[in-house]
Design brief:
This protein is of the alpha+beta class. The protein folds into two domains: 70 residues, Winged helix-like DNA-binding domain superfamily/Winged helix DNA-binding domain (Arc Repressor Mutant, subunit A), CATH 1.10.10.10; 168 residues, Chorismate lyase-like (Chorismate lyase, 3-Layer(aba) Sandwich), CATH 3.40.1410.10. 25% of the residues lie in helices and 28% in strands. The chain contains eight helices and ten strands. The chain has a six-stranded antiparallel sheet with strand order 4-5-6-9-8-7, with helices on both faces. Strand 1 and strand 2 form a beta hairpin. Helix 1 packs across helix 3 and helix 2 packs across helix 3. The N and C termini lie far apart (70 Å).
Amino acid sequence: MSTYKLVMGGRTMRAGSSDARALYERVADALRIAIEREELKPGDMVPPEQELAELHSVSRQTVRQALQQLTNEGLLTSGRGRGRKVRSQTRLHWQLSSYESSTRHSVEGDAWNTDVREQGHEPRQDVTVNIDTPSQKIAQRLQIDLDEPVVVRRRIRYVDDMPFQLADSYFPMDVAEGTLLMRPGDVSTPGGILASIGHAQKKLLDEIQIRMPSKEESDQLNLPAGSPVAEHIRTGYNEAGKPVRVMVSIIPGDRHTLVYELEPK
């Protein structure tokens, strides 16, 4: 059998060699190396299946297996109907210990937008507002009854037009009613809306668990198959110790580094 050059990956191999790996693994390895060497850069289209099949002297089905493997690893987009692209490996360093700090954000507006821009990226948020009944976990943290309505601000947060987070904030009606918290859209004030309406957060309690996403979460965030998420729940208390907000953020594991800076007591 004739030799052929694996252009992507820069290696030469002989088809039918003693390499014990499955054919699709060899194709996946060549593409993976090309991505690591930035011969294929984030946003680049992967060559068509037929072209890859001819290049590697394999069937299109073998190529599909290789592409699916790399998609599962988070290196390629799913490419439904439009071909696959190399995924960006951009990670946001989310400084949770200083996020929402009244000192840091006394002048700036929304803390998320500020953090993203400081890391050289462009943020965007789609925000809707609803009045809803709370789940048990929300009611428990807000210390309200299950039949008490809450104001919910639901956000899809984007970095460079890529969905990066889901963040839902829940407020008791006696805190949110008649305030900016009821206004849809990306609304912010220096120091935070809660501070501007007399409910500055004086204590924050964070809870983080790692789990697999729901189908809805996976679809909204365009997650690769098998990608875990962190569910970050932050409860904010005012000066009197009353819980005034619960924020539930769904954080893809392939797009974030969570950072805390703590001072030992």
